[in-house]
Amino acid sequence: MYMNILLILVILLTILTSFRLMKVFDLAAKLRGKEPYEISESENNMNALLVLLSLVGLSGMFFFLNHKYYHPATMLPNASKHGIEVDKLLHLNFVVISIAFLICQVFLMWFAYKYRYNKKRRAAHFAHNTKLEIVWTVLPAIVLVFLIGKGLIVWNLQMWPENDPNKLTIEIYSRQFDWTARFSGEDKTLGDANFTMISDDNILGVITPETIDRQLAKCRKDLAELDSLLKFSFPNKKKYGELKTARRRKNFQIQRVIEFKNQVKDKKFTTGYDDVVLQQEIHLPVNRTIELQIRSQDVLHSVYFPHFRVQMYSVPGVQTRFTFMPIVTTAEMRDKLGKPTFDYLLLCNNVCGAAHFNMQMKIVVDTQEDWDKWMKGQKTFRAGLMPEVTVPDSATVKADSVPVVTMNNPH
Amino acid sequence: MSDMHTTHVDSHTKDHHDHVHGHDEHHVHKDSFITKYIFSQDHKMISKQFLITGMIMGFVGMMLSMFFRMQLGWPNQPNPILETFLGKWAPGGIMDPNFYLTAVTIHGTIIVFMVLTAGLSGTFSNLLIPLQCGARDMAAPFLNMLSYWFFFISSFLMLISLFVETGGASGGWVVYPPLSALPQAAPGSGLGMTLWLFSIVAFVVSVLLGGLNYITTVVNLRTKGMSMTKLPLTVWAFLITAILALMSFPVLLSAGLLLIFDRSLGTSFYLSDIFVSGQALEQTGGSPILFQHLFWFLGHPEVYIILIPSLGITSEVLSVNSRKPIFGYRAMIASLLAIAFLSFIVWGHHMYITGMNPFLGSVFVFTTLLIAIPSAIKAFNYITTLWRGNIRFTPGMLFAIGVVSLFITGGVTGLVLADSALDVNLHNTYFVVAHFHIVMGVASMFGTFAGVYHWFPRMFGRMMNNKLGYVHFWLTLVGAYGVFFPMHYIGLAGVPRRYYNYTSFEIFQGFADINQVISCFAFVGGSAQLIFFFNFIYSAIKGPRAPKNPWNSTTLEWTAPVEHLHGNWPGEIPTVHRWPYDYSLPGREEDFVTQDTPLTEEETKQLEDYKHP
């Protein structure tokens, strides 16, 4: 406390002293007969020199940072097929803009220095020159057309890849604050999923006959709990409102789950059985086309695999996609970089809340054989369901009865 | 050779003297303190109000950036400064991750809207449009006053949003829903976000009232002889900025309103299929991408709303202090218009990887890269303006040269980001942060400083201290480049922005030291601003008295007396005879000829020859 007061006093005194000092300087200048707007020749020359110096500084910094950071060892090593083209394009762009940057800065600062004020000289009355202006309109235009063309070729390569029948489809699913991946299994089809089917043990909300029953039972149990809380816990106004909202949402959820239940006869919902759901770490086979299907549970996230030159937003309510092919295995990359602990990563690159900065998943790129072995060792979605499905509780008994329709029901 | 621009006479310009003479009667009434300093309707006072409010907001925005630079440079290390300033948001001196996000969000919002939109346009449009067009005041002084007070409300709401219990908005300045729509998803999306939205609503109202005034004044209240092609480039820049603002800010308002509806009325414009904190929300069918389209439909023109006034100021300051006409006056206007037009059809380049159709992405690549052409023309014209000049390095001039340098540095990296194929890997990395801070943030800030140093005598009738100005400039330049230049390289290494720290990633460990260096440069740049604040306050109160036309400038604002009159000129408004860039005309002793100087016989003859060869 006393420290703070002392600090404030020191600051105030500094300001006051500076005020007095300034006044003295101003008076001194007045005595010397210098007008307040006048800039002395020495001042002017010094600033001109500093401009020249800043040119040296700026280009020095540019070359130093290029030397230190703009080379393969410190930049992100590329590990995907389209990434090769992307990196070439980046390099081309980088060369073009470096040239433009240096030329313009040199001219700007050199002119500023060279044409500093001189009493004996008079500035030229030079207001326009059509030829010059046409040249520097057309020149950038040509360079740009070239860059646009190059860029769009690579863009199309990235975004409209050839359809590969052997592609591996993986769902990447985001939520605050972790990633979940789902492999499509032997049937090469991802099972249906819906956000109303989400529960603690079914993060993705995969729809199978078993999960529908369990979800329905759970929701009804929740609803009963909410009802009893509303009746017997004497909530205050705020809490009451929250409970009402929760109850309304639960009813909505139950309706949706029942809709799925009614569809079981037609749709079967069995394609999800062989899916493999994983968190923390996934493996990818090298040299195989990978199609990411991206979904989000809550807010926007961005699926960012920096080493594969892959990034795509994951958007709640919309499925997005990105197709790529890893071409370097983790082991090869570790050798190449000389870093035995190196790992590919999946990061979140769109702010999604407090722990956004630590939302990651480890990616291992294996050879096809290693990957097959790894895949065999993974539990399918159905295998994960089994133990719990066989234990019915009191809630599952009521599962098939029609729910009590309450107020605020959306249907 | 005398340039033909110099001698255009436009006989169509109407005489507005009679319209505005009525203002003089106001002057008879003695202004009370309240009508003079608080609810003032005088454009010069309103301009000062905008400037000072903008500076206060700028200080807050800067302090927030200092705090998060401390966090980024020395993550997880207790810092007593943070604890002193942030209290419960930095328990034990370690910043709360939620506060980190709030800091970056409010820093961005304040700098983009409160400082570089209102603080820059509000100040200089208000000051210079009437004075440089030769008008007694804005077309609608009362609306002008309202414009300031809506801005004040907006700033106030933004400030108090920092102090609410759950913290300020924390979804980044772009406030993408669903994060910003769901209080369950982040504490900052509660009351803090509500205040953010209401602040922005007030802000849009302020911008619209201001913009209407700026446009009307430029179109209707130009003095006799002041044709559009005799307007200084500053006024052209403010006019185009105001048009951009009028066309784009309403879209932000609608984006914000729909977000307010989603937040409080249960609509689903932006929400669909969301499961959050254990509940499945009923809202289905909306799209978060819709918000991004609406937001960036403002967001991209906004970049130019920030930059164009700065470029206008730069044109004027460069020309005055090189003692040379601006090179390619008409090309400058044409490129401003081209940039303004293109800025409306490029918003998608912020959304290449949001799941937008890639073909649409290609179209946006094309339109975005087109902007490089008028931008390049501007840069080349600035450089040529310096060529064979006789340059006086006032602090304003240094900042104007700084604008050009930053505009080039930040502009070229735009080519990389405009390329959708490259944006895939650079989107939301520090490369983007470096790019827009240099080209839009720092460049516009430099433009603002150039304007303040240059027109300070016009605002306060006193001179700012040059020496402090030089120290301020050089430290700020070193700080700005030192902070943002290395960020490009961090971005090329894939380091994402808006991360609280990078300690949990082995691949980013190599950048811990460079982050500390950046933070140190930020502190240097930040402290330099204290020098500016001091110089500003001291000079406004005690600075030496300024003469009428300290920079030997040609434009009309320097023909008005130093004392502020409500109505600007004591007698008749000067008539304009020539364009604003008659510097170093051959055959004259003075190296400048003010716009209200009648043409000589020789010049009239030349004009006749030009018109009827």
Structure characteristics:
heterodimer, A: 411 residues, alpha+beta, Immunoglobulin-like, 3 domains, five-stranded mixed beta sheet, extended, B: 613 residues, mainly alpha, Cytochrome C Oxidase, Chain A, two-stranded antiparallel sheet, 2 strands, 1% strand, globular, disordered N terminus
Overview of this protein structure:
The complex is a heterodimer of chains A (411) and B (613). Chain A is of the alpha+beta class. Chain A folds into three domains: 40-118 and 128-160, no CATH class; 192-270 and 385-400, no CATH class; 276-378, Immunoglobulin-like (Sandwich), CATH 2.60.40. Chain A is built from ten helices and ten strands. Chain A is extended and about 95 Å long. Chain B is 62% helix and 1% strand. Chain B has helices at residues 17-20, 23-28, 33-38, 43-73, 80-86, 97-133, 141-161, 191-220, 233-264, 288-322, 329-342, 358-370, 372-386, 395-418, 420-426, 430-460, 466-492, 512-542, 601-611; strands spanning 275-276, 279-280. In chain B, a hairpin with a 2-residue loop joins strand 1 (275-276) and strand 2. Chain B is globular and about 85 Å long. The interface between A and B is large, with 131 and 138 residues.
Strand and helix map with partners:
The complex is a heterodimer of chains A (411) and B (613).
Chain A: H1 2-31, H2 41-69, H3 81-114, H4 130-159, E1 168-175, E2 178-183, H5 209-232, H6 237-267, E3 276-279, E4 281-285, E5 290-296, E6 301-305, E7 310-314, E8 320-324, H7 330-337, E9 344-348, E10 360-366, H8 368-376, H9 381-389, H10 394-397
Parallel strand pairs in A: 1-5, 4-10
Antiparallel strand pairs in A: 1-2, 2-3, 5-8, 6-7, 6-9, 9-10
Helix pairs in contact in A: 2-3, 3-4, 5-6
Chain B: H1 17-20, H2 23-28, H3 33-38, H4 43-73, H5 80-86, H6 97-133, H7 141-161, H8 191-220, H9 233-264, E1 275-276, E2 279-280, H10 288-322, H11 329-342, H12 358-370, H13 372-386, H14 395-418, H15 420-426, H16 430-460, H17 466-492, H18 512-542, H19 601-611
Antiparallel strand pairs in B: 1-2
